[in-house]
Amino acid sequence: MTGQAPATILGIETSCDETAAAIVTRDRSGHGMIAANVVRSQLDEHAAFGGVVPELAARAHLTYLDHIIAQACREAGLALQDVDAIAATAGPGLIGGVLVGLTTAKALAAALDKPLIAVNHLEAHALTARLTDNVQFPYLMLLVSGGHTQFVLVRGVGDYQRWGTTIDDALGEAFDKVAKLLSLGHPGGPAMEAAARSGDPARFKFPRPLLHERRLDFSFSGLKTAVRLKAEALAPLSEQDVADIAASFQATVAHIVAVRAGQALDRFRAALPQAPANLVVAGGVAANRTIAARLHAVCSERGATLIVPPIALCTDNGAMVAWAGAERFALGVADGLDTMARPRWPLDLPDMRVQPHGA
Ligand code: KG4
Ligand code: ZN
After folding, report:
1. Residues 320 and 175 in one domain
2. Do 25 and 42 have their domain in common?
3. Are 157 and 75 in the same domain?
4. Atom of ligand 1 lying closest to residue 283 CA
5. Containing domain of residue 284, as a range?
6. Whose CA is nearest to atom 19 of ligand 1?
7. Are residues 278 and 319 in the same domain?
8. Among 315, 317, 321, 345, which is best to mutate for testing ligand 1, by the most ligand atoms less than 8 A from CB?
9. Count of structural domains, the chain
10. Ligand index nearest the alpha carbon of residue 290
11. What is the pTM of this model?
């Protein structure tokens, strides 16, 4: 069966503001190897607007994607003809960008007569720890990015259960919005972390929305408003005020994430007492050292293991898409050239389930 054969997969990612292509190989025993991983961030295109402008993002993907695919092939020392399948993010994400990547993948699949694998971007994040750390199913994932904040039970390829999500802003988005109101620039997360270093995390007590409820959901919009009101009350802000607000905000969200991660791990233990308790973190916010330190503490208190893939593989990249494609390909999955790009595509829909080709 296709399942066990080694495979080399091209992965394409264009769902937000990274144009990325990678070539990944999965061996007979399920170990992955990255042969090339090329990412072009569009920071310059969007900097003047303080956020990602979807039309500009799509246009930049269109301009650069072919070159980036060619560069990935060069770095891997392979010709396009050598790959076994073409994987591309088919959603969720900014639809113009997704269309550029998916259409390119379809054209390559048709021209080279290779299977197409339409990858759910969230599944790509979810499976990355299997590429980097060979983590076995089941495990708990916390995805914290600019677009998503969710706990997902990862039971297998295509087999997910969402345990909690944000009811308003994603955590990265909250970092970005607070950074914007403090005039720290975009993307806000790294700038906030840098500003927070010289700040007092105890100076301001910000609200912790939803935390009194047992559900594993998040809410950050009320917190963001509280920060804005505080900043307006203090205006004009001194450099120290900005640092103290950034540090207090960061401490607040780190606390929220840590409490929720502890609750999610307890639920994981109760639901799957035989499984090792592994918490995998994915998404750009995983780069935040204060949050990572709190997650480490929560895991070690509970005898659980925290797995954080290298940050270049936590943020958007092509290797995670190629790897998700490789995992699906190994199970005999391929998608039709009529596959649609999807702006929204929750992980736990039945259509994520693996339908073996020809079944
Ligand atoms: O996963 P990612 O690269 O892109 C997607 O959103 O898919 O995540 C980007 C997000 C941005 O909101 C950025 O501000 C945030 O991750 N981020 C951080 C840090 N580095 C990136 N947030 C907090 N602290 C950081 N060090
Ligand atoms: Zn992402």
Report:
1. no
2. yes
3. no
4. 1
5. 139-308
6. 189
7. no
8. 315
9. 2
10. 1
11. 0.94
| Below-50 pLDDT ranges, the chain | 1-3, 357-359
On the question of a cis peptide bond just before residue 209, with omega within 30 degrees of 0, the verdict is: no
Residues with CB under 5 A from ligand 2 (ion): 145, 316
Is 199 found in the same domain as 304? yes
Which of 120, 144, 175, when mutated, tests ligand 1's pocket best, judged by the most ligand atoms within 8 Å of its CB?
175
State pLDDT tens for residues 253-301: 999 999 999 999 999 999 999 999 999 999 999 999 999 999 999 999 9
182 and 325: one domain? Answer: no
User: Are residues 175 and 254 located together in one domain of the fold?
Assistant: yes
Any domain includes 148? yes
Task: Looking at the CA of residue 147, tell me the nearest atom of ligand 1.
Answer: 6
> Could you tell me the CATH number of the domain that includes residue 164?
3.30.420.40
Q: What is the pLDDT of residue 49?
A: 82
Can you give the pLDDT at residue 2? 44
Supply the pLDDT for residue 250.
98
